Amino acid sequence: MNQKEIGKHSVKALWSSFLEKNPDNKNKEVPISFYFCDNKKDADECAELVVKGIKRATATSLWWFEKNNEKLPKIGDQYIVTDWNGNAKAIIETTKIEQIPYNKITSEFAKIEGEGDKSLEYWKRVHKDYYTREMKPFNEQFDENMIIVCEQFKTIYLK
User: Fold this and answer.
1) pTM of the full structure
2) Rounded distance between C-alpha atoms, residue 43 and residue 9, angstroms
């Protein structure tokens, strides 16, 4: 099995294990699996922060949802968090969603997101860099007023 197949297997295995222990879960289909960030180091680190219960939020630009024609998250949505290689680490469930301009993100949200030193300054720096990188291939520019989909979640199952 190659790494991609191993990752797919681990996602299905984690979901099956979760359903065995939670037979009343309303969703029976394997949910979307994903990793945070756009590089191995950060993706693996964020997955570990979820496992440790430190990372309880994520911040995706509304621009990304629109550009990729993706549905916005809803409260109760479940996802499988993986590491960079696609290995399942945790199942999360969305508990709160707010659309907030980048320049109005609070230090409380930065702390809940749990990355780096958990400060608003750190959050702004790394997220500005991230949003800039994701927009660059489309020749679009980061904007301090751009809307961020701030999604809070709880970890409901661990590997």
Assistant:
1) 0.93
2) 19
